[in-house]
Design goal:
Length: 166
């Protein structure tokens, strides 16, 4: 089962979306076997943005604990003319096994203040709560599976669980 989550982005702002991958027991998923992480978004059939660990637009912040950050710099959306784009996020494992773990919509809200382009940002401002993605053993046979989730997660995380039966 794929986790569903919508991400809100303010047009022309620098923002980041934290994501955390866990197994069905709520234990962190080690990203060591992941070769890259890719996000693609389309609006009206046209690709409007891509993010990837290959170009550091997705930054792994804690490999052992399955945490990474989707980076949306202001110049990416400053002149965008779309408002809603469907996206999916895939993990590409060593051996080229591809697994989609997250999907939803990027919602681009309008910006009231028009500012001139100031170039690349020096950092990432995290504007959204973290998304927690649960991977089940039936999706990836190398993951230890459990019977139920322990829903005692970090209160700052937006916890979105896939409760797929194993």
């Amino acid at each position: 089962m794929i986790t569903q989550a919508n991400i809100r982005i303010k047009r022309g702002d620098d923002c980041g979306q934290p994501v955390e991958i866990v197994d069905v027991d709520g234990k962190p998923f080690d990203l060591s076997s992941v070769k890259r992480i890719d996000l693609h978004a389309k609006s009206i059939g046209k690709t409007v943005l891509t993010r990837s660990t290959t170009d550091d637009t997705i930054k792994v912040t804690d490999k052992k604990n399955g945490r990474f950050l989707l980076h949306f710099p202001h110049h990416l959306t400053q002149t965008a003319n779309w408002q809603r784009a469907e996206y999916d996020l895939q993990l590409v494992f060593v051996g080229d096994l591809i697994h989609t773990v997250l999907e939803g919509y990027l919602n681009l809200s309008g910006d009231v203040t028009a500012l001139p382009d100031v170039g690349e940002p020096n950092g990432v401002i995290v504007t959204n709560p973290s998304i927690k993605v649960t991977i089940t053993a039936t999706e990836l046979p190398t993951i230890d599976a459990g019977n139920a989730l322990d829903n005692k997660s970090d209160p700052d995380l937006l916890t979105i669980y896939n409760l797929a039966k194993i």
